[in-house]
Design goal:
Layout: H1 14-22, H2 38-51, H3 58-70, H4 75-82, H5 86-102, H6 106-109, H7 113-124, H8 133-149, H9 156-168, H10 172-178, H11 180-191
Length: 192
């Protein structure tokens, strides 16, 4: 690159830059990337540091694995790069996608990651994830309200039982879709 150094952010190669400056080089070879945003540029930098031996904590590696998948990597590639099993990566990816859709719902944002995974099962098994976003937001608002209100009773088994009832009992899905809160109140009390 021939432009002044202050026009670029060095993602990888800080030691080479320092050595080039010390050696009074006026030019060095470089690859210039145009990441779409600052978060992506930071991801590249952290990934390069990790590959260079800087130890990143598990949660950070998990988030970067999901970001790599969003940028085209496979789950297997991300798992190998960040040295994480595929299961947690798939789980985190699912949660991050739900956070994008439902993060503005107050009760949803108060749920634990486990509760969010139970919600995912509840929406996916009977096919509720295929509906429009406003409808899904109504379902999530009702579900997250009940999950918070009845947190001592709300667990993966209850969520799976509710999802199974929606999927297999005729008329239940229509009843739920017309008034998700009333359906959940009645059925959570019945299963508790």
């Amino acid at each position: 690159a021939t432009a002044p150094a202050d026009e670029y952010v060095v993602i990888c190669g800080n030691h080479r830059i320092t050595a080039a400056i010390a050696a009074d080089f006026s030019k060095i070879q470089a690859y210039i990337l145009n990441p779409e945003d600052l978060a992506t540029a930071k991801m590249y930098g952290i990934k390069e540091n990790m590959l260079g031996g800087v130890d990143l904590d598990y949660k950070t590696r998990l988030i970067f694995a999901v970001m790599d998948i969003k940028n085209g990597s496979t789950v297997a590639q991300a798992a190998a790069t960040y040295q994480i099993d595929e299961g947690p990566i798939k789980r985190k990816k699912s949660i991050m996608e739900m956070d994008d859709d439902y993060g503005s719902i107050d009760t949803y944002s108060k749920m634990s990651e486990d509760q969010k995974m139970w919600l995912n099962t509840f929406l996916t098994r009977p096919g509720l994830k295929r509906g429009s976003l406003p409808d899904r937001q109504r379902y999530v608002e009702a579900y997250s309200h009940m999950a918070i209100k009845y947190s001592s009773r709300f667990n993966s088994t209850l969520s799976s039982n509710l999802a199974d009832k929606l999927k297999s009992v005729p008329g239940e899905i229509t009843s739920f879709q017309s008034d998700p809160m009333a359906w959940l109140v009645a059925n959570v009390q019945r299963h508790s």
